Amino acid sequence: QLQASGGGLVQAGDSLRLSCAASGRTFSSWTMGWFRQAPGKEREFVAGINWNRSIITYADSVKGRFTISRDNAKNTVALQMNSLKPEDTANYYCATSPRTVRVPRRGGDYSYWGQGTQVTVSS
Questions:
Q1: Can you tell me the distance from the alpha carbon of 87 to that of 76, in angstroms, rounded to the nearest whole number?
Q2: Which of helix, strand or coil describes residue 123?
């Protein structure tokens, strides 16, 4: 129900834009988030946005470089990644959570997950 795309191989300092499209149902009232997992590391929260964009949260490691956005009419969420660093290399996943009071950072609070898109940043 969630399809992530936009990953690729880039050099440090470059930009990428990830997209996540939902199908089968609308998630316009749900919180949307991006997570990432690098080889040998635990999955970590990257960014999240609530249904009306009034709450947007970023991991400290990406704050100021990444921007999350959503288009409820198109049932999509995007992650604009600028000034990429080698440590941003990971498989990126979009996910959606029914929690609306806040943007959860814990993966267990998210109900549906995309398949992941690989981002590789070379130095």
A1: 26
A2: coil
The 10s digit of each residue's pLDDT in 16-37 is: 999 999 988 888 899 999 999 9
Backbone angles phi, psi at 87, to 5 degrees: -75, -5
Is 7:84 a contact under the CB 8 Å cutoff? Answer: no
Is the pLDDT reported for residue 10 higher than 90? yes
DSSP state of 27: -
Pair type for strands 8-11 and 117-122? parallel
Q: Where are the beta strands (DSSP E) in 8-115?
A: 8-11, 16-22, 31-37, 44-49, 56-58, 66-71, 76-81, 90-97, 112-113
